[in-house]
Amino acid sequence: MLIKCEQCGVFFGGEEGDHLCENCKVIHTKKSGANIDKKEKFVIAKDLVYDNPGINPEGLRKLMEEIGVKITVKEIMSYVDDGRLSLSNMNLDGLCEMCGRKILSGRFCPSCKKQKEDQMTRRNKSIQKEAVSVKHIAMHTRKE
Hints:
By secondary structure, the protein is mainly alpha-helical.
């Protein structure tokens, strides 16, 4: 029997007394206070992608948030990068690689780009400090 989930609105095959799909049952048993582990997040994401084939990463994040699962676009993209999840409607040209926000061009949104630049600046400064400290340690030789 085809039933519409009362929580997320997804249609699923179930018995007459069922009111929640498998994903929402997992979430309902966990209740909002308990954390859902990474494996369960992935299973829920995979099932939602299967039920919504044209979904994009941001849409998947929003749908998971609606059913009570907190996930970031970065986590979703890690599933895609690992080859565990395939999004058919994924247009990476318009999404930041770090946070998944929509962008007009490039690889990162302005805030992530700034964050990356700050990381690189800090890294370069620490490398320069190491180079200076290594420069002072040298072997002395006698000149003849």
